[in-house]
Amino acid sequence: MKKVINGKAFSTEKAELLHSDSYSNPSDFNYWREALYVTPKGAYFIHGEGGASSKYGRQVEQNTWSGGADITPVSKEEAIQWLEEHDGADVILEHFAGDVEEA
After folding, report:
1. CA angle in degrees (0–180, nearest 5) for 26-48-92
2. pLDDT tens column, 20-50
């Protein structure tokens, strides 16, 4: 997927996939999949897709919903937060080791 946001081009084909998480399967209205990417220039974004009842659902006609997809740019801090919430501890320790301290 490609999207231009505030004059910056984001592409899942050109960026590096760091981690992904999902719920259910694509035939489920509640299905969702999110993936955290980093661009070659170091910008982070989340590519998400989901069924009609997910947060990626979109209205196509009156009382008719469909699945959808989107790209959302995130800061480094938001990327780390997303990884914490989506079981990405290994990725945090590999890519953001300088931002983590021992407990």
Report:
1. 115
2. 999 999 999 999 999 999 999 999 999 999 9
